[in-house]
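Tip: read the tokens left to right.
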């Protein structure tokens, strides 16, 4: 019995020594021992960070501007609205001869017209236009004359073209001269006119300036021929008398 016990002790010692030797060998080669029952630590793979969602821009935060880029709402691009023109600017852009606060055209409705034969210069007629209205008016270009049923229009003397439009304040007068016939008798088709119609021009040549006038002529009428010419409207009477 003693011998069996001794052998068992020696067998257990030898077995423990062998196990220790194996453990020491495993440690020395650097691999270590593996615990078959323990699970290996899980390796965590790196994942990309999830993108941060961009909050939608509300109409309230953008001001509902309706333009492209930031502040766009809906589809399409809103058109810009031009700034309204002020009343003052509109008045300043009005042209002479138009309605509103600017000047108007002189014509038969706001003037009185007279036709006076002159002894000097010979064979001349003086036209006088007086502004009887309440607003300043413009006498544009030259008078368009017609004696009786005359079928042609007397042309102006371009040497009498004024540097500025003749302008009449209420109560003021403007003037034009009429050469009725050649002093040397060189004109053709002489005849006597008994009715004179004076037409007014607008802001462009040969356009209508409004109502015509029919100033009275002397009872015997006036003689004219193919030499008939007129001056442009003048501010001063002397410019007509010296023509």
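Filled-in amino acids:
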């Amino acid at each position: 019995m003693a011998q069996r016990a001794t052998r068992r002790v020696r067998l257990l010692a030898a077995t423990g020594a062998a196990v220790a030797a194996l453990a020491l060998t495993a440690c020395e080669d650097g691999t270590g021992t593996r615990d078959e029952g323990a699970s290996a630590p899980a390796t965590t793979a790196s994942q990309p960070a999830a993108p941060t969602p961009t909050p939608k821009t509300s109409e309230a935060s953008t001001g509902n501007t309706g333009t492209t880029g930031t502040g766009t709402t809906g589809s399409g691009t809103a058109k810009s609205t031009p700034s309204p023109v002020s009343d003052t600017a509109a008045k300043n852009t009005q042209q002479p001869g138009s309605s509103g606060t600017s000047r108007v055209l002189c014509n038969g409705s706001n003037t009185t017209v007279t036709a006076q034969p002159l002894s000097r210069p010979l064979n001349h007629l003086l036209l006088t236009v007086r502004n009887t209205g309440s607003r300043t008016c413009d006498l544009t270009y030259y008078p368009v004359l017609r004696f009786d049923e005359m079928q042609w229009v007397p042309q102006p003397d371009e040497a009498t073209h004024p540097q500025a439009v003749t302008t009449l304040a209420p109560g003021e007068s403007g003037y034009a001269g009429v050469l009725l016939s050649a002093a040397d008798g060189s004109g053709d088709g002489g005849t006597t006119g008994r009715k004179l119609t004076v037409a007014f021009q607008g802001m462009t040549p040969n356009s209508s300036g409004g109502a015509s006038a029919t100033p009275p002529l002397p009872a015997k009428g006036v003689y004219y021929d193919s030499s008939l010419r007129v001056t442009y409207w003048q501010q001063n009477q002397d410019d007509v008398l010296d023509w």
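DSSP finds four helices and twelve strands in the chain. Residues 11-48, 53-101 have pLDDT under 50 and may be disordered.
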